[in-house]
Amino acid sequence: MRAALAYPVMAALIAAAATACAGPLEDLGPLPPRFSGPPLAADTVVSEMRSILAAEGVVVEREPSTVLGMCHERLSGRHAPETADAALKSAFARARSAHGWQPGPDLGSGTLTLSKGNWTVTAGLPPQPAQGLQAPIVMSLTCVDGGAAATAPTAPPSPAHTPAPASS
């Protein structure tokens, strides 16, 4: 009998404590945008980053984006190992000073990040390659909100269906 009475009493006490401690819920309005400014197209961002890197002597190629519905690009290339770190750091400094990119989220000492509009660019400082090989440069470009800025591959349009002529 005590156990049967204790459960409803405990439930009532917990409910009372929860409602007494919780402040009234109020509508704070819409959430702020996840990025400022107009969304940038993937082709624009890729072209800008390639030219910034080229100004520092780093040549990268755009890898095709194979993920449907994702707003993600990848640039990769190779550079002389003696100057790869310095060239990559200089390219990121150039992007901030001459192209309006902002420092991105801090992902640790071995990673460089930038943000602009709806895009975030990350690049890891290249590891020391084996003797005689160039250092790999890999840059990942990710957009916050795909929308019209994404350049995901699309399926080819399906041909219009024309009914076969009726035979008599």
Mind explaining what this structure looks like?
- With 168 residues, the protein is an alpha+beta fold.
- The protein is built from three helices and six strands; from the N terminus they run H-H-E-E-H-E-E-E-E.
- It has a six-stranded antiparallel sheet, with helices on one face.
- Strand 3 and strand 4 (111-116) form a beta hairpin.
- Helix 2 (42-55) packs across helix 3.
Please write out the topology.
Layout: H1 2-21, H2 42-55, E1 60-63, E2 72-79, H3 84-99, E3 102-103, E4 111-116, E5 119-124, E6 135-143
Antiparallel strand pairs: 1-2, 2-6, 3-4, 4-5, 5-6
Estimated share of beta-strand residues:
15-25%
Summarize the biggest pleated sheet.
6 strands, antiparallel
Order of helices and strands: HHEEHEEEE
Biggest β-sheet: strands ordered side by side in the sheet: 1-2-6-5-4-3
Which value, in Å, is the CA radius of gyration? 27 Å
Proportion of residues in helical segments: 25-40%
Give the helix tally: 3
How far is the N terminus from the C terminus? 87 Å
Overall pLDDT score: 79
Structural category: alpha+beta
Shape: elongated
The count of β-strands is 6
Unreliable segments of 5+ consecutive residues: 148-164
Key phrases:
elongated; 6 strands; alpha+beta; single chain; 3 helices; 168 residues; 6-stranded antiparallel sheet
